[in-house]
Design goal:
By secondary structure, this protein is an alpha/beta fold. The protein contains 17 helices and twelve strands. It has helices at 14-25, 48-58, 74-78, 116-128, 160-163, 175-184, 189-197, 209-219, 229-239, 242-253, 262-267, 271-282, 290-307, 315-321, 328-340, 344-350, 353-360; strands at residues 10-12, 38-41, 62-66, 81-84, 87-90, 104-108, 130-131, 134-135, 140-146, 167-171, 283-284, 287-288. The chain has a six-stranded parallel beta sheet, with helices on one face. A two-stranded antiparallel sheet has the order 4-5. The relative contact order is 0.10. Residues 1-5 have low confidence and may be disordered.
Length: 364
């Protein structure tokens, strides 16, 4: 991989990055020649910082944060010197975590935005787990985040001496992971549908997972987008690239902000009526709108993963799998994803003889 395009190390989704951190943190001991900080590379707004914060919270780690690009003087980093008994000693800066016996994570955020003097100091912190007269608590780990070294970012180039003091992974955007997180965090569901329908838009100068999430936070109180197009466009243009803002207006005008929800599909007492509405939305003049259909299917998968216990019957799910306007390759992918959820009730509902014959093209 070209480090100047994305970063270093394997290109991982959020869940893969969490599994990687789990593996590294499972090692005991403090052999600093072998236990190195993890550096997570990625574009701005992709969720690197939130990943580390959530990981600490979800796994019971104490958490401390520094952004070395904000350090004006070396004293902000290694502490202010004073003399005790004729020896120069450096006070521990207040950002250094206190040893209370609990394990913790020190996040060094956007560390390659710091100037070269600070980076040289970080080399000592990485190698010795401390600076001058102080050390980090022995049961604390270091994770860094960094932006790619390309023309889009004002960063300091790292030499090999620095790079080899860390392990490296690069974070990539995965729409389904973002959708699951967004729905769990009360992000406007119409926004989730937009991102799942057009995931390629999350790659602009201004449009990234952070900015799109902020935009849809501010749209949630707008009940009818079509009657508030001017306000919606003003909000979109303030957060996102012009092209993305325009695409969202088209999304609204095509009435795709009212895509049928998983709740409607799974809990309706008249599933045939729901399927008719989906057909009307997804089949136009004999052409199947695969983008809309894929969005509906992705939303269903995410919903089932999070809400299986709230659904009394999965008969509607089985009926949906059998509809004739779903292409068989998309149906097969959907069926596999449902099985990967590893839920007994879902497996029983979708692994019927009728569905199996349809998947293999047996019309007998």
């Amino acid at each position: 991989m070209n480090k100047n395009s994305i970063g270093l190390g394997s290109l991982l989704t959020l869940q893969q990055a969490v599994s990687f951190i789990d593996h590294i943190f499972s090692f005991e001991g403090n052999n600093l020649d072998l236990i190195k900080p993890i550096c997570i590379w990625g574009k701005a707004g992709i969720g690197k910082t939130q990943l580390v914060k959530d990981y600490a919270k979800n796994n019971g780690y104490e958490f401390a944060y520094i952004a070395p690009a904000q350090f004006e003087e070396m004293g902000d980093f290694h502490g202010i010197p004073h003399v005790i008994n004729g020896k120069t000693v450096y006070n521990q800066p207040d950002w250094v975590p206190v040893d209370n016996g609990k394990p913790g994570i020190l996040l060094i955020d956007d560390f390659n935005r710091a100037d070269d003097r600070i980076l040289r100091g970080l080399m000592q912190l990485f190698q010795n787990h401390g600076m001058m007269s102080w050390k980090l608590p022995s049961n604390w780990k270091i994770i860094c985040t960094a932006n790619p070294e390309d023309a889009d970012y004002s960063v300091t180039t790292l030499d090999n001496a620095m790079l080899t003091r860390m392990m490296h992974v690069s974070l990539k955007f995965e729409p389904k992971e973002w959708a699951q997180w967004a729905l769990n965090n009360m992000v406007d569901e119409r926004g989730v549908d937009f991102v799942l329908t057009y995931p390629e838009i999350i790659d602009g100068k201004l449009t990234n997972p952070r900015s799109i999430t902020s935009f849809f936070y501010h749209t949630k109180k707008i009940q009818d987008f079509k009657n508030s197009l001017e306000l919606v466009y003003q909000l979109a243009s303030s957060f996102l690239d012009k092209e993305t803002a325009s695409a969202f207006i088209v999304f609204i005008n095509d009435e795709l902000d009212n895509i049928i929800s998983p709740d409607e599909i799974l809990k309706s007492k008249d599933v045939s009526n729901v399927i008719s509405r989906i057909r009307k939305t997804c089949v136009k003049n004999g052409t199947i709108r695969l983008d809309i259909l894929s969005t509906i299917i992705t939303r269903l998968t995410v919903y089932l993963k999070n809400n299986i216990n709230s659904i009394d019957s999965l008969d509607n799910l089985a009926e949906f799998l059998l509809v004739d306007f779903i292409p068989n390759d998309l149906r097969t992918t959907f069926h596999l994803e449902l099985n990967f959820l590893n839920e007994a009730r879902i497996n029983q509902a979708v692994n019927t003889t009728k569905i199996s014959k349809l998947l293999i093209g047996d019309n007998s």
